[in-house]
Amino acid sequence: MIDRSVTHATFTLERLYPATAARVFAAWADPKAKARWFSTPDADHELDFRVGGREANRSRPDSGPSLTFESLYRDIVPDERIVYTSVLHVGEDLAAASLTTVTFCPADGGTRLVLTEQGTFLDGREEPSWRELGTGDWLDALGVELGTGGHR
């Protein structure tokens, strides 16, 4: 029997990339670029980057159930803002649902990216700290994709 629980959490992560907002934004919008920094080589990644468009990332770790992360884009303001809702399934079970806002602001010769996620984490299938750590890792990977590193 599953121990039912609901945990609500919000976190905000910031990165400073020495690149224009247009360049950082483009790395989110281009399906090939996004797959390089957001996904893994063995995952199935799809991106339809438009308001109402969907993103899906499916993987199957060697020792566990499949993981499916799906997002729906709610608001896109080029070079300024992205808002999306997401769900994470572990196998067939819903593990988390969230609302994420990403902003791109000019700062010190580059772009300050601010990502805020408000999440609902269900039945211990995912923990807020895991999501925050994983999100930070892919923001760091975005810096590598941009060839700039990025700073916290």
Automatic annotation (TrEMBL):
Cross-referenced Pfam families, in alphabetical order?
A: AHSA1
Q: Which domain of life is it from?
A: Bacteria
Q: Which InterPro entries match?
A: ASHA1/2-like_C, START-like_dom_sf
Query: Can you give the residue ranges of the Activator of Hsp90 ATPase homologue 1/2-like C-terminal domain?
Result: 19-143
**Family in the record:** Belongs to the AHA1 family.
The protein's name: Uncharacterized conserved protein YndB, AHSA1/START domain
